Amino acid sequence: MDSASEPSVSGGITMAPPSEETAPFDPEAVHAKYAAERARRLGVDRSDNVDLTRDERFREYLTDPFTEYAPRGPMSDDVDVLVVGAGLAGVIMGVKLREAGFERIRFVDKAGGFGGTWYWNRYPGLMCDVESYVYMPMLEEMGVIPTMRYASGEEIRRHLDAIAAKYRLGDGALFHTNVEASTWDEDDAQWVITTDHGDEIRAKYVVMCVGILNLPKVPALPGLKDFEGATFHTARWEYAYTGGSPTDPNMTNLADKVVAVVGTGGSGIQCVMPLAKSAKQVYVFQRTPSAIGWRGNHRTTPEFVQSLTPGWQQARTDNFSSVMIGRPVEVDLVDDAWTEYMARVANFAGEPGMSDDELALAAEAFDYSVMEEHRTRVDAMVHDPTVAEALKPYYRYLCKRPLFHDDYLLAYNEPNVTLVDCPGGIEGVTPRGLVANDQEFAVDCIVYATGFEAEVTPFPRRAAHDIIGRDGVSIEDSWKDGPWTLHGIMSRGFPNLFLIPAPGQQAVITVNITHLYTEGAVHIAETIAALEARGVQRVDVSEEAQAAWTQRIVDDWKDNRAFMAGCTPSRLNFEGHPEAANPKAGTYGGGYGDIFGYRDLLAEWRAAGTFPGLEIDGAPAAS
Questions:
Q1: Structural domain that includes position 117
Q2: Mean pLDDT, residues 512-527
């Protein structure tokens, strides 16, 4: 039996990979069931969230509970490169700049240290859901092998800290500092960066590494401020209240506490079991159940380590990305639920000679078999049939971000865990607790596991500060109708400014974001180094090149709005409003994009040595 057909074990439950013959597919019955479940979740404004960045009443949700704030006075400085953001992308970017010979680099970040999402998210049970052998960057360079196949958040954060230390990225880093404005000074050919500490930093180049999941969401519930107990977001976990730590899941302070968990997405499903083992009672408020496949996590084996040869991580990374976009490989090296489920659904090929209608029907039947596998898994793991039914996902697999966990479903067998299934959402907050389904649930603590604004949130909002380019034009105004870029990395009117490629930004989308960040960082660092070697003062994108790239993205755009209109509301379809999708915010190659074609295109552009599509000090770079 080959590895692709061997069953995998999850939480003591054997779960076979998906099969086209899992269950009979009745299109009319399935459509009716999916439509009915979708209808139960419509009728409320699901995108109505508190704007934590602007509403002073809720600023406590953004306070750093992990690192003490150290008072300091304003400073001024002049550097070669300023990097906004010290998360995963920023760390990789810093390394590539160091390798390109840059010493005068400065980081600015609102966090108290390196790590980005791995700095802020330290909730109990946190793990990466992409295999850590391909997700954690620079394993070979650092001489590190992750302890687990899917590493804990704390292991990832410490790894990023170690990289930053090795490459001296912390020298002069400004933490607990918010950038208030980045303004282009045309006369001096520099960016002027001002902060909430009164700092003024002048930089020849600025690289924006602001992340994609950096804006925590808290629903704007009636009475939100009335609750008299403890409340926090999973991205600001209050261990001072719960007890325990990122390395100690024993939250002893909760032994006599009733805890509400709001949300059953990626963060919610991971913290429920640790809470169940610590709290007196846990209520889990679910709007829409997630499709939760097996993860099959385990400690890294000596045999795996011994099998590795030089270059193994890049080869494994390329192999995983290939499988995920449907490129043929001899062996699926990662062979996990991502490659077994999402890759096969997203790249369904059908049989030779199928008509378009036959292919669509076959793809839907296969999708149904995958979802039946997930629903069957719920029945096998959850003892109470009523609870199990409420936990079953009834929608197409690509309607919501798939999740993977070995223990979450088992938590509902614990006597102190209660599922509150409320498809219409929570109705309000009282001084004592939460109201759902016309019932008040009295709790001591509310944990908002409500995630973040979507990955495709427009870059100007993710940047969270004014970026003012030539002639006083902001990037928010320039992009009011959608992105305008070259390669998703530079934008006309904003000289010497580089954006790390990200979703919704005319680059590509990858399951393994580390792969995309690395390709982007290599390109940016080598481009800046080449510009410096030529003695360039200012570089901008030509109007023609930007228009051509944007048109290419629009031409490649694959319109899936009709598909998404039939989906349950989620952040992937703009909470039930897929018409909000903008073709200009698409990807190179369409769909999720072609990361290999994108990488080759960037490499060929650099190899040309003529900076095609750029204007150097006001003149075209290439004839």
A1: 76-213+455-546+592-620
A2: 98
Q: Distance between terminal CA atoms of the chain? A: 58
User: Are residues 150 and 232 located together in one domain of the fold?
Assistant: no
Q: Which of 549, 612, 614 is nearest to 585 (CA)?
A: 549
Tell me the three state secondary structure of residue 203.
Answer: strand
Say what the pLDDT of residue 53 is.
Answer: 78
Any domain includes 561 = no
Per-residue CA distances from 610 to 63, 207, 491, 607 (Å):
46, 21, 18, 8
Q: Find out whether 321 and 515 touch, Cβ atoms under 8 Å.
A: yes
Highest mean pLDDT among 8-12, 18-22, 223-227: 223-227
Residues 509 and 609 in one domain: yes
Any idea what DSSP says for residue 341? I
Q: CB within 8 A of 322, min separation 6: which ones?
A: 328, 329, 596
Residue pair 115/160 in contact by the 8 Å Cβ criterion:
yes
Residue 40 counted as domain residue? no
In a domain, 476, yes or no: yes
Asked whether residue 333 is domain-assigned, the answer is: no
SS3 452: strand
CA distance 568 to 576: 7
Instruction: Count other C-beta atoms under 10 Å from residue 520's C-beta.
Output: 30
Could you tell me the two tokens for 290? 């997630």
CA-wise closest residue to 13 among 291, 468, 373: 373
279 and 414 share one domain: yes
- Residue 71, pLDDT score: 92
270 and 180 both lie in a single domain: no
- What pTM was estimated for this model as a whole? 0.94
Choosing from 420, 448, 476, the residue where a domain stops is 448
Residues 468 and 538 in one domain: yes
Q: Do residues 94 and 102 lie in contact, with contact meaning Cβ atoms separated by under 8 Å?
A: no
On the question of pLDDT at 28 being above 80, the answer is yes
Q: Say how far apart CA 460 and CA 281 lie, in whole Å.
A: 41
Backbone angles phi, psi at 346, to 5 degrees: -70, -25
Helix (H) or strand (E) holding 370: helix 356-381
The Cβ of residue 187 has, within 10 Å, a number of other Cβ atoms equal to 5
The answer to whether residues 441 and 467 belong to one domain is no
Q: How many domains does the chain have?
A: 2
Please answer whether residues 580 and 49 qualify as being in contact, where contact means their C-beta atoms are separated by less than 8 angstroms.
no
Task: Label residues 488-516 b or e (16+ Cβ within 10 Å = b).
Answer: bbbbbbbbbbbbbbbbbbbbbbbbbbbbb
